[in-house]
């Protein structure tokens, strides 16, 4: 069964974007937000391996990381994206996409009030606020933004949210420790 044109176009755009900054005529003209890559599986283009780098000045940023020998390494090397902790996610586009949101979850262990132990994400655009006008890119940008602004008032991981509310600095320290321990290539 052929993929819908929408999925093909979004995939092409996702694959082109990591290199957009390099190909831009003006160095200041950036067509993409650094720190996100999505690579479709060769055998099923509805499945994507995703990497999201933690935003700088957040508990999820990491140290400078040299490229590793896997599918996202070339993207990191060519775009010089190494500032944040590297979080791996899996994304699946259901048969009724874009009428229903993509299924996405963290594979990397993360200490975050809006991500549970199974990697499921509490994000309004993945649930009640989904619209067929949204695209994969929008969802990935929203997840990256969530890393920069955890919301313990709308948690998926109640224990993490509780620790975030009771002692935010200790929770941030734990998030940094987990990022250092788990969010590396």
Automatic annotation (TrEMBL):
Gene3D superfamilies tied to this protein: Ubiquitin Conjugating Enzyme
Domain UBC core: 2-184
Keywords: ATP-binding, Nucleotide-binding, Transferase, Ubl conjugation pathway
ATP-binding listed as a keyword: yes
GO terms, molecular function: ATP binding; transferase activity
SMART domains: UBCc
CDD domains to which the protein is assigned, alphabetical: UBCc_UBE2N
Family: Belongs to the ubiquitin-conjugating enzyme family.
Protein's name according to its UniProt entry: Ubiquitin-conjugating enzyme E2 13
Origin species: Metarhizium acridum (strain CQMa 102)
Source taxonomy: Eukaryota, Fungi, Dikarya, Ascomycota, Pezizomycotina
């Amino acid at each position: 069964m052929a993929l819908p044109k929408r999925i093909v176009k979004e995939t092409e755009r996702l694959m082109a974007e990591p290199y957009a900054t390099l190909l831009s005529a003006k160095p200041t003209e950036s067509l993409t937000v650094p720190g996100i890559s999505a690579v479709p599986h060769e055998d099923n283009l509805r499945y994507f391996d995703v990497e999201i780098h933690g935003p700088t000045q957040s508990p999820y940023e990491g140290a400078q990381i040299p490229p590793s020998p896997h599918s996202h390494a070339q993207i990191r090397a060519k775009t010089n994206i190494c500032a944040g902790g590297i979080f791996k996610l899996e994304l699946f586009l259901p048969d009724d996409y874009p009428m229903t949101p993509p299924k996405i979850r963290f594979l990397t262990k993360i200490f975050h009030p809006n991500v549970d132990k199974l990697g499921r994400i509490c994000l309004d655009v993945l649930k009640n606020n989904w619209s067929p006008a949204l695209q994969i890119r929008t969802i990935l940008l929203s997840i990256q933004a969530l890393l920069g602004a955890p919301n313990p008032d709308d948690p998926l991981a109640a224990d993490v949210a509780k620790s975030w509310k009771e002692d935010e600095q200790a929770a941030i320290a734990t998030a940094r420790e987990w990022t250092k321990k788990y969010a590396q290539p």
